[in-house]
Specification:
With 865 residues, the chain is α+β, with helices and mostly antiparallel strands. 40% of the residues lie in helices and 22% in strands. α4 (343-362) crosses α5 (384-401), α9 packs parallel to α11 and α17 packs antiparallel against α18 (705-716). Bound molecules: tryptophan and zinc ion (ZN).
Amino acid sequence: MLDVQNAPAQPTVIQREDYRPPDWQVPDMALDFDLDATATRVKATLSVTRNGAHDRPLRLDGAGQKLLSVEVDGVAVNDWRLDGEALVIPLSGDAHTIETEVEIAPERNTQLMGLYASGGLLCTQCEAEGFRRITYFPDRPDVLTRYKVRMTADKARYPILLANGDPIAEGDQEDGKHWAEWHDPFPKPSYLFALVAADLKPNRSTFTTMSGREVALAIWVRERDLAKTDHALHALELAMAWDEHVYGREYDLDVFNIVAVDDFNFGAMENKGLNIFNSRYILADPDTATDLDYDAIAAVVAHEYFHNWSGDRITCRDWFQLSLKEGFTVFRDQSFSADQGSAAVKRIEDVRTLRAAQFPEDAGPLAHPIRPDSYLEISNFYTATVYNKGAEVIRMMATILGRDRFRRATDLYFDRFDGTAATCEDFVACMEEGGEADLAQFRLWYSQAGTPRVTATLTHEEGSDRATLTLEQSVPATPGQPTKQPMVLPLRLKLFGRDSAATLAPERLVMLSDPREEIVFEGIDERPVLSINRGFSAPVIVETNRTPADLAFLSAHDDDPFARYEAMQQLMLDTLVAAAAHGRADHAAVVGAVRNTLADGSLDPAFVAEAVLLPSEAFIGDHMPVVDPDRVFAAREALRRELGKSLAPEWRSAYDAAAGEPYAYNPAAKGRRRLKNVALGYIAASGADDAADLAFRQFETCDNMTDRQAALSTLANGTSDKRIAALDIFYNRYSDNPLVLDKWFSTQALSTRDDTPAEVEALAKHADFTLANPNRARSLVGAFSVNQRAFHEASGRGYRFVADQIIALDKLNPQTAARMVPPLGRWRRFAEDRAAKMRAELQRILESPGLSKDLFEQASKSLES
Ligand code: TRP
Ligand code: ZN
């Protein structure tokens, strides 16, 4: 750990190995809330039982509340003490009733953890450790409790009172208040507790489960937003049916409620029977939400619903096991989305996300295994590694087992661990037993960080009928893990004949488990081309000895859509890395491959749109020994211009094919829209005189946000006089819609223009900018920090801006501030002039007074060498 003056008082490192079962269990609890935005009273009645033979006192976590009283078995006591913020009560017997009363202030809660106010309503967020900000409790996921909740609140202001479980009773009082009681029959950890007091309206539906039970579904939003909830409600119904069909999992309460709130640290939360959502993952209509928004809404609604089994019925023993619920649930939501539209395009998108968010994490100072070994602040471990790499690890097991054995294994898991707090090891053991597989070495995926590298060398001597594939693997060193063991890498591969395009060796699943293995193929009578890691069967980096011509061949002939996409990406990447490194740019192979793809009428337009997009600047940078953001940008823009120019007629006809088509929301229409807007981008990149007019016409005449935002981005990246006009029109049209204003901010923060750093600094002073709302903060600061060239402007002003915002945000919302650190932590990837400036900003963050534990952990780890 660094020696820093401002380190928060004794930050304790929590170690996975230190796990001990809880000293006391709490089988039952009654909570009584007297709700008020400025001062809420919480009475908690806990039945506690001693767990095992020991003489340790009861220890209840707490944070930030005012303690009013403590009773044991109905008698006020004063032999309790506070240890830090924990309430410690000595108890003589093995079972007692503890009653506490506290006061909390939701309105002053800017961290958005615990009970807080958002847009006039009151709601909770307890994962991971927010419940302790509501009442004193053993706030750890292996304490499972049956909750009875009573809420009293002003009826005019908060006509709707919701909590977990089923509604039991409600009534009015004479003082203008009303009350409601909810009971949740399923024992649950405190992080799944939720309540909402609000003036909201429901969009309702009913779902009949496979065993014939009726469930009342409702999505609660402001009355004016009701019309924007049909898509989310429909997605919920689809998800409920899908989980029955694919995993045999049925919903278990009489009601399922979803509430949308504007101020939320994350996407959404799976509280039992009462999911609470960031409104951006609920609200959609064609005028305000893009196709990507629609997809994300369905994915997040499904994700939170799937948690009812993978998270709520079976929860985590401790927070090191977070991937048990998150990795599995992401895998489940990815599979669900794949089943709703193009599975190939979904896989491409998921791999792109993994490479954009997780690979850099695995390659940087914050690298950790999907089951971490230690943390200072658990909020910092809701990462792409735990979520997305965690999902890849589940996917690999599903691949290894095959569909039927995987289903038997998940059945066993759900059956055996229902109602308990489980571990990742429990899950893997069920995969082995139910799936009849040996996963001993595979378990390394849980303990080793870093993205494995595979080198695949295919040799074939002319005239010979045998080919040899040599596979070598290595796992890079990561912080705290200098040496690694070889892992199990399931690689789907196949050989094609370069001349005949025929299959020379049919697809097989190779389990690479040694550092080096050779595979010999017989009967290879023409030059073979290797298709490897088909479907991205393992989350690894593959290097091959394939030539540009081989890649071009695969981009035209591979029958695995992901591998076909990947061949094109590799060809583009090799071209761009060479261009950025040595200014050497031979665009011909890429232009030819893109031309072929655009001409192939058998392809789904949604696939074509993904395949013809160039790799991102960040991804190109990831493949250079030292990232030079300006040269990467220049190389990529040059290729874009070349593609735009050489294929001008193709882009025009791709554009015209879908231009003017009335809006519809279905996979085919979405795909045509996507290709049209990719084409618009290339037309603009070509420098065509009419590009700005074309974009502006689309901007003004379109009937949906996908087209409008695409046109706006095109204009915002350019220099035409239409740019300011479009931004102003957009702003005025949507000035009362915060989710669309977020797009207005992020479009400008992502602009490729030279003046983006200055524009972003000015936007931070805009009347509509606020750090208090996480979506808004991310829309400007978060978006800017992934705009590689702008963020890394040589002057360092981008670094200074982001650090200033992080320091300011930490005062309000440490969790959201800490999540903005990683881009600054990538300094090792840049030349010393930039790296020194990035380190200086991290150092300045560390020296800021009153630094949170969250931010301290991220900034200090980012500086460690
Ligand atoms: N469990 C939530 C999910 O993945 C994540 C989440 C919601 C969260 N709110 C949070 C994580 C606040 C940390 C802090 O579905
Ligand atoms: Zn989740």
